[in-house]
From TrEMBL:
Domain of life: Eukaryota
Gene Ontology BP annotations: auxin biosynthetic process
Family: Belongs to the FMO family.
Pathway: Plant hormone metabolism; auxin biosynthesis
The protein, known as: Flavin-containing monooxygenase
Pfam entry (one): FMO-like
EC number in record: 1.-.-.-
Substrates-to-products reaction catalysed: indole-3-pyruvate + NADPH + O2 + H(+) = (indol-3-yl)acetate + CO2 + NADP(+) + H2O
Entries under InterPro entries matching the protein: Auxin_biosynth/cation_transpt, FAD/NAD-bd_sf, Flavin_mOase-like, NAD(P)-bd_dom_sf
Assigned keywords, A-Z: Auxin biosynthesis, FAD, Flavoprotein, Monooxygenase, NADP, Oxidoreductase
Amino acid sequence: MFSFSDADTTSRRCVWVNGPVIVGAGPSGLAVAAGLRQQGVPFVILEQHDCIASLWQKRTYDRLKLHLPKQFCQLPDFPFPDHYPQYPNKKQFVDYLESYAAQFDISPHFNECVQTAKYDDACRLWRVRTVDASGSDGSPAEVEYICQWLVVATGENAERVVPDIPGLAEFGGEVIHACDYKSGESYKGKNVLVVGCGNSGMEVSLDLCNHDAKPAMVVRSSVHVLPREVFGKSTFEVAMLLMKWLPLWLVDKIMLVLAWMVLGNMEKYGLKRPSAGPLQLKNMHGKTPVLDIGALEKIRSREIEVVPGIRRFSSGTVELVTGEKLEINSVVMATGYRSNVPYWLQESEFFGKNGLPTSPFPNGWKGKAGLYAVGFTRRGLAGASADAVRISQDIGRIWKDDLKQKKQKVPTHRRCISTF
């Protein structure tokens, strides 16, 4: 980086980036950065928090492990260490990502929150404006990055979703989102309502049980629950193997038969299956099936109570749609996450109102005018890694072609004071 002084210290600092700006330093952003580094393409990676993989480091519970075997979760050109277990825990995965960043010399700009990103049609460049609140004098510093390519790597799970439930403000007890839940240790002996029955809801309920709390889990709709392993093999691995030879509908039927053999009939416990199969539902709506790691055993023994939807909250109680009332001390909202892209990216063609690419998989990684997206495939880390390879190779090809045609020139801009 080359820096120059500016007489007007109150003006926004402007930075020209010779390569792409990557927004987000989670696994997706790191994977793109590593691919670019291998091809010699310069880049800047912006992260609003003070660490890489902030979702994993700051917004996950202590007992979290990868739900899929490690070979399906590794980033490009960097396998997990051999001594890691098949399902690495939270700390091991964070350590792996730290090693990945060190291996490929990736140094994100931390504490830089992107306020807006907009394509400038006049100069055919992206303008990315950030605020850095970590200045020495405590005042936020504004920076504008100018670049040819913009890689959106903030992912599908950037922002918590908290539903508006009648009476919640009157409840009076503790209400937190699953991203703020760490352990059931402080809930011993308490009645806890877990709203949501996805992987997070199931695992939080299990953790509460293991700490002698009394969880009731809200199941509003149907859900696919599959065993994490069948006959000693990862269920996901079995499904991927079958997909090579059989149509999706038949693989779904086989997976449901295997689930019934291992887990039995779950409808009598309040867990009804959707009419669409687990893989079909995942492909059509991005809804991930639950992989059971012990919660079903607690449901069978009634240590986890399955309850229907909520009608309203009141002081210390919740009324269900059946009219039944439960006395509860705390609420954990395992109600999922969503993309935050609509809040800062001023673009309405490539990304939809839900913050996800409008083009279906596998074409949702590249837009127009140098815009890219990674980590939005709803296919986990494997999907993000595949898109990261495509993006880094595409940018690398254009970069090398440009170098052959002409010398790199820094565009004239009256406020540009530094260059990457």
